[in-house]
Amino acid sequence: MREEDDSFGDADDPALAFARVEDRLASVHGEVALLRAAIEGLTAARENIEIPDYEPTLGRTEQVLGVLAQQIAAMRKSPALSMDPAHMAGEIASAATNARREDQRLITEARTALDQAAREIGNRLASARRGDEQNRWLYVIGACGVVLGLLLYALLAGPLARATPDSWRWPERMATRVLNEPGPWGAGQRLMQAADPESWALIVAASPLTDANRETVQKCREQAEKAAKPVRCTIEVKADSGQKP
After folding, report:
1. For 151, how many CA atoms within 13 A lie in the half-sphere containing its CB?
2. Number of neighbouring beta carbons within 10 Å of residue 170
3. pLDDT-based confidence at 11, cuts 50/70/90?
4. What would the pLDDT profile of 105-134 be if each residue is shown by its tens digit?
5. Which of 11, 82, 166, 216 is paired with 152 by a 20 to 30 Å CA distance?
């Protein structure tokens, strides 16, 4: 009860009430000053904010929108958008048929070209086989011709050589060439040795006697011609150089 009496007593005091009002006004004044400072700070911050220039971006956006509008207008004018589903299905089927027809044509052309190439290869192989067969026949005919020529030469060379004049000496030349001798004398010796070895041995043995007594034999021959009868002749026989006396 006493505290209530004190509060009522303070309320009745004008000075105390005025002091309280001043305190309230000072508090309000501080809050207003603080609010003013905040508003001024916001105003300064707003003035410092740099607002970007959106005009170039808006210009490019407008250009893009214009291009899109033109493309959409062209698409709206396309015949495909004006067709109903049935008509579009028919067009698709027609395009597929044309594509298959073109593919069939290309396949036919490729098959024709392949068949032609196969025929050409077959013809060339057949021609090569015929060429090989012809070459074999040519070789056979050539070999037969060579053999026939050799036979004809063996059969006709002698008669033809003997039919020529003696001054040509074809038989002697042929014998020399066949025996591979340097001259007709060597060929004759070889023929005599092959024809009669014993007679050839006697000729070889008598050859030194004739050479050593050539003058004596010549004189005896002259005496026999004068006397018209055989005469005796004395000849010298020398010992062989390889034998001891």
Report:
1. 6
2. 17
3. very low
4. 888 888 888 888 888 887 887 777 777 788
5. 166
Give the pair of three-digit tokens for residue 141: 């005919």
| Closest by Cα among 193, 190, 157 to 176 | 190
Q: What is the number of helices (H) and of strands (E) in the chain?
A: 9, 0
207: how many CB neighbours lie within 10 A of its CB? Answer: 10
DSSP per-residue string spanning 170-218: HHHHHHHHHHT-SSHHHHHHHHHHHH-HHHHHHHHHHHHHHHHTHHHHH
Which residues fall within 8 angstroms of residue 189, CB to CB, at 6 or more apart? 200
Say what the alpha-carbon torsion angle 179, 181, 186, 190 is, to the nearest 10 degrees: -30
Which residue bears the tokens 């026949």? 137
Closest residue by Cα to residue 238 from 196, 215, 208:
208
DSSP for 11-45, written as a single string? HT-HHHHHHHHHHHHHHHHHHHHHHHHHHHHHHHH
Q: How far apart are CA 108 and CA 113, in angstroms?
A: 9
Tokens of 95: 């395009």
What does the alpha-carbon distance between residue 32 and residue 14 come to, in Å, rounded to a whole number?
26
Phi, psi values for residue 137, rounded to 5°: -65, -40
3-state secondary structure of 127: helix
pTM above threshold 0.90: no
